[in-house]
Amino acid sequence: MNATTDNDFHDGAENVDWAALAPEGGARIPELLGQLAGSDTALSELHDIIRFPAPGHLAAPRAVDFLVDTACAEPTPATDRWRPLSLLLELVAGHAEDRLPEPRDLDQWREEVAWATSNDADTVREQYRSWAEEAPDEQHHHRMRNRLAVMERPGGAALLRAELETHEAVRARIPDLVGLLRGPDNRGGMDRAGEWVSYLLGFLAASVANTADAERITAEITGASQVLLAKDLRPAPKPPTSLRDAMTMTDSGEPLPAELFALGLVASPTDTDTSVGLTHQMAGGNLYNSFAAAVAMVLIHGENTPREALRRIGRGGGTTVGYEGLFNESWPHCGGHSPRVLGFLALGRAGDRARRLRLDILPGLVKGEEDSRAVVTGAGLEMVLGPRSKGYTAEEHAAADYDEETLKVLWAIAELPDSAWEDEEFRDTLRAWALPDDPEGFRALAGVEAEPEPEDEPAAPAAGPGRAPDAPGPGGLLGRLFGGGR
User: Quick one: DSSP state of residue 284?
Assistant: First the structure.
């Protein structure tokens, strides 16, 4: 990590014309950068100004170095490093659904941005619209649809360029970021920096053209985590030398589940050492690490995933913790989707080998993940019916003799309460496969009777200390980070 003093890791912020880059709130960026490490409010406000694709995202590439410096600075308390790292993660993986299951081709992304910024906006919008309609799979559909939504904003092409520049700026700081994988302060306790930086590094290197980055990150994680050593080969942990050490050093010597997540995105299938290390983790007796390592094996080996990994994922889902708890422990909550949703999408990398697993996970997601219902529904329909671009007709569905797997997906959708059908994106997804977009018609097709509407929730308890009676719960970025994931 770079050596710095108390004040110099955001020195120079006043010299940037933030107001020009982010007319709405940009003038406050130097102040917010200075407060960021110790303030949830500063984190939330800065996120709202520079998030993608807000107009202020043009400022994000310039903010990256200040964020990384804050996270890596010696004076920043270890318990505060998560704030700049979580914001960097949102900047890098704000649309995580179009990054999974297959890695992005970084060179192709660069070419696409060059094309979008050198052509007139109408031409670019029309092309994105066509690409979204003709997409060969749901991942590409979401990527093109997200790009189209940006291009429909004023200055859309510049925002697309800023997104790429932000990614490149964070990639340039990998040599500094990997330092946060080491040390008991970064690896122990709650909201540890080693966990957040693992999430970030995983998404940074999850691109086809990032071979050198991926190799560097893999080496740093395996070097910091002892994942390459079976338990009986590891040195005994050093005992604490003081009462303070005994109270604060909670690094168990085990790999962090988030590190196993990152290895799944960055390690090469030809890296036998890492695969053997993950195999040791699967059999190591730690439920969370066993599950995270098994999922990592799926991401690394895809359709060549060893059957043992698939079995362990399914076994984990059947525990009292379940898929939700296990994914929450090892996967990030970013881009508005829960860890379980991102994990469900990622398992698609194994194709038909993970089909039964994903069909096992899907009903709970369709029912319980309202914000991701359309994304999950599209992935499920694609799994059993094929891509949306195939050209379906209502007549085909009326005459179809669905197999058991297709019925499982259709029944999961049909059992949703009427209120779920108010989501226009969800209904658009059904229409893409020429399925009925009203609950009565869909249930008739699937042969399912309506489920009763859930009862009204009980009245909220009396306000606790420090909270007004009508104060809302956590929302926005902080609500995502702590309200339902991780």
Answer: S
Rounded CA separation 217/211 (Å): 10
pLDDT higher than threshold 60 for residue 474: no
Q: What type of residue is 288?
A: Y
CA distance 70 to 419: 44
The H or E element spanning position 443 is helix 439-446
Place of tokens 């969370």: 288
Whole-structure pTM value = 0.86
Main-chain dihedrals φ then ψ at residue 73, nearest 5 degrees? -65, 135
b/e burial code for range 444-457 (CB count within 10 A of at least 16 → b): ebbebeeeeeeeee
Residues in CB range of 484: below 8 A, 6 or more apart: 333, 338
Per residue in 401-443, pLDDT (tens digit) is 999 999 999 999 999 999 999 999 999 999 999 999 999 999 9
**DSSP class of residue 432?**
H
Closest CA to 274 of 217, 331, 316, 233: 217
Task: Locate 379 and state its tokens.
Answer: 């992935």
Contact criterion met (CB below 8 Å) for 72 and 2? yes
Residue 166 has which token pair? 């932000």
- The answer to whether the beta carbons of residues 247 and 276 sit under 8 Å apart is no
Under DSSP, the state recorded for 255 is P
